[in-house]
Amino acid sequence: xxxxxxxxxxxxxxxxxxxxxxxxxxxxxxxxxxxxxxxxxxxxxxxxxxxxxxxxxxxxxxxxxxxxxxxxxxxxxxxxxxxxxxxxxxxxxxxxxxxxxxxxxxxxxxxxxxxxxxxxxxxxxxxxxxxxxxxxxxxxxxxxxxxxxxxxxxxxxxxxxxxxxxxxxxxxxxxxxxxxxxxxxxxxxxxxxxxxxxxxxxxxxxxxxxxxxxxxxxxxxxxxxxxxxxxxxxxxxxxxxxxxxxxxxxxxxxxxxxxxxxxxxxxxxxx
Amino acid sequence: xxxxxxxxxxxxxxxxxxxxxxxxxxxxxxxxxxxxxxxxxxxxxxxxxxxxxxxxxxxxxxxxxxxxxxxxxxxxxxxxxxxxxxxxxxxxxxxxxxxxxxxxxxxxxxxxxxxxxxxxxxxxxxxxxxxxxxxxxxxxxxxxxxxxxxxxxxxxxxxxxxxxxxxxxxxxxxxxxxxxxxxxxxxxxxxxxxxxxxxxxxxxxxxxxxxxxxxxxxxxxxxxxxxxxxxxxxxxxxxxxxxxxxxxxxxxxxxxxxxxxxxxxxxxxxx
Lengths: 271, 271
Fold this sequence. Notes:
Chain A is of the alpha/beta class. The first copy, chain A, has helices spanning 4-14, 40-52, 63-68, 72-85, 101-114, 128-135, 154-157, 166-178, 193-202, 220-227, 241-244, 252-270, and strands at 19-23, 58-61, 92-97, 119-122, 141-147, 160-161, 164-165, 184-188, 208-210, 235-239.
């Protein structure tokens, strides 16, 4: 199995795309045409993946949607499907896990063995020993929350200590301490473009997962201008609702393809 | 269904106990006598619960152990069993979730509807809008990471901003902003007894979940002295490995009872 970072670099290049499709299927919002399916979430995801695989650099299923719907099996099927059919596209399991070392080992096992994800998202609040069990899987990616896209992220993340905000401390720790296997990345919300610029200057080589374009209102032009690295990549720009619910009829997969294609082109205008 | 806080207060009183048993069964460490069972994790938990229910104030299954073992069904069975047989003992689902609002709603649904837990643990790094979907379940408890028991918790939690550490900011936000339904509690590690004292002074009425006695080395006397509230309760002192693996033979449930009883008595010496 190719490492997350190598898969990501290939997908950026081969698909000429920084788009990540968030597979966050709310069981209550699926198109009516899937209502008879025994595995409607999987069928929904499969159709979207089949329609978009040549337009994206990543897929990112959000675990909460599957957990709430008691659909862990369909999450597993979705990841396995992508890896079998489109092995060149990495899958990020968005779980935002974090716990003491012995428990973090179990969460690493969940993400990387049970679900076989190429990467996962983690929360840095508990520090290094909570991240090490994930980072030790050198071939997998570990994407650390830094400056999140939601309005209240300021409450703790913007507090200033020793002249640096908390999210800058997280970026510094990631660059200097947590990236020992060259498999770390950062989450930085599209809703904070000036922060994106500042952290890109601090961390020229670390990929950023950027949620918050589309439904959350982030500006694509500013994200690309401020967040890309020296070779015009470095970003995994996620859109979930804007792509998967672009069309709510039985033509949802075509709608998703159109939306993913438009987002890719819009991003590429600014690269 | 009685609220988490009311169940907790009753259990503190009726069992004269501040002990929480952490149900963190590593599938590879179960007693050999359970190896033929179709649901060994559930059987293990059931025997421990039956042997300890009159000695504890809470049970706390750690979700990561079930997730790693693909044993979500046995987690659900465990919680349902406790609530049917011992409805006076609240169950905390230890998941340390945290995400943007729309996703947090899904995690709340997972914990409070799919698993029907009385309370869950959450991570505050993303701020208020990530906590609100949990706190809005007024009858359920929301236990917020503040000063965690692990060695690296200092890296971010001890940073000082405006004269207060980050964990003091979390305690202040919890007291002044997040406790609008009187259902919030804080996680403070037994390994940091002076912090426990400081936060008890700041938050006289908020319950603390205290991991880190036993395997992690926290001092029970200092925890009780520094952490109890004005009426000698206020603490949920968790022990996992020290109780569930006290005896590794077919007498594991009796061993767990003995260990839970000893911990309760040790704690009560200092109250």
